[in-house]
Amino acid sequence: MTTIRPSTLGRIIAALAAAFVALAIVFPTTTAQAAPESSAAGSCGQKIAIVIDTSGSMTGNQEYVIDATDHLLDALNGTASHVGFYSTDGESEEGVISPKDRLFGADNKPFSTRTKAGANAAKKAVANWIPEHPSGDSLGETAFKIIGDKEYDQIFFITDGWLWYEDHQHAERLKKAGTVISMIIVDNEIQNLGKYELALPTSEKHIFTAESYEQLTAPLKNVVTADCKATININNHLAKGVEGDVGNWKFSVGGTPVVTDETGYVSLQSGVVDPKGEKVTVTQNAPDYTIIDVKCKITDGDAVPTTFTASSFDVKVAKDNILVCDVTNTKSSAAPDPKPDPKPTTPKLDPKPTTPKPDPKPDPKPITPKPDPKPDPKPAPKPTIKPQLAKTGAQTDALGTIAMLLIATGAGITISMRTRRQS
To answer: How far apart are CA 111 and CA 296, in angstroms?
Structure first.
């Protein structure tokens, strides 16, 4: 047995005190950090591992962890993310993985959140899996041991901060392979952590806090979805009956086009920083195809109005939104006129025919000019004459007639007299 002399013991105590002060300087008191603007992985639709501290200190908090993972899966629904869940029970042996240590989908792969059915399957599985815990110690290194190199883009470790191990060889192996490891500390403070806990994450900026398990939902969602914020996740489709591939299509938001994968998915960074949102134009570069429909929604929220043309669409994006847009195309030769407005842009027909209509009350008689229905055989009527003038005119006519008779009679008398004289 080795005996430590008092002087030596004093120097050891002094050294430990100095180390403690140095540690306090390096890791000052820190409040809960906001989600990073972007993690080292840098894009939406990643492979994500959630490692949950299932030690005894989680007793009574399972329902909060389930609720937090439910909200997280809703937020990722519609993106091409894949999520695997791991515990810290440490039952796995070399080459054998215990079902309690890892939770995968039915195909023995991380759950896909691309569809609603996939996200719901993950939620149901987690709700049945977590109640099997807690038990044992926080053997986080066991979870990292069964994760392969480059199997995930990011690992998020939810813990109360106390890890009962000192060996980080598997965590270091994963970090060297490019996996980003973040730590979400629940009901604890960063300055309370030991050097083993602080050495686990990729860097100090990858350490986040939640005040309690009850308040885990928002921090977990914000941290894990940081790379999906303000993104537009496109699911490209072809109209029914149209043949072709939906992969290798180009979409862009004012910059370098990004190519869809073989399933037609692509995630675009909008660059929006306004929490109230702003309009973003997404351009499609596919000369042989025409957009005939676009439907967008916030992953865990409501539908968002869109307008579109044959090769682009406009949608409003806010800083914290994760948008999923289903874009439907057809062959350009078969495409109808684009409808940029939700309502048809082609002019609506008037309820009445637009062709000229006959007079509502057509003349039943021929169109050729007709004589007056009551033609007047006489000339135009004479101007109205006052009664006294009319009377005078009548008298004049009568006198004229008498005068003519008298003249005729006189002439007869004269002729008669002359005849008599000759005889």
So the answer is: 23
- Determine whether 156 is exposed, middle or buried from the number of CB atoms within 10 Å of its CB (0-12, 13-18, 19+): buried
Q: What is the DSSP letter of 294?
A: E
Strands annotated E in 333-397:
none
Q: Are 213 and 61 in contact (CB under 8 A)?
A: yes
For helices 116-129 and 62-76, the axis angle rounded to 10 degrees is 170
- Residue 254 contacts residue 214 (beta carbons within 8 Å): no
Of 130, 4, 151, 137, the closest CA to residue 61 belongs to: 130
Chain length of the chain: 423
Q: How far is the C-alpha of 401 from the C-alpha of 228, rounded, in Å?
A: 121
**Which run of H or of E encompasses 154?**
strand 154-159
Pull the structure tokens for residue 238. 């072809």
Burial of 411 (0-12, 13-18, 19+ CB in 10 A): exposed
More confident residue, 44 or 401: 44
- The closest alpha carbon to 188, from 206, 207, 167, 169, belongs to 207
Strand partners, 181: 155
**Three-state SS for 163?**
coil
Task: Report the relative pairing of strands 265-269 and 231-238 from DSSP bridges.
Answer: antiparallel
Strands 102-103 and 258-259: unpaired
pLDDT digits (tens, 9 = 90+) for 302-355: 999 999 999 999 999 999 999 999 999 999 986 665 555 555 455 455 555 555
Of 236 and 163, the one with more pLDDT:
236
Q: How far apart are CA 281 and CA 382, in angstroms?
A: 84
Nearest partner of 243 among 331, 179, 317, 316, judged by Cα: 331
The answer to whether 272 and 318 have CB atoms below 8 angstroms apart is yes
Longest dimension (CA), the chain: 209
Conformational region of residue 415, where left means phi above 0, alpha means psi within -120 to 50, and beta covers everything else: alpha
d(CA 247, CA 230): 23
| Residues facing residue 216 across a β-bridge | none
Give the C-alpha separation, 266 to 250, whole Å.
9
What secondary structure letter does DSSP report for 77?
Answer: B
DSSP codes joined into one string, 298-332: ETTS-EE-EEE-SSEEEEEE-TT-EEEEEEEEEEG
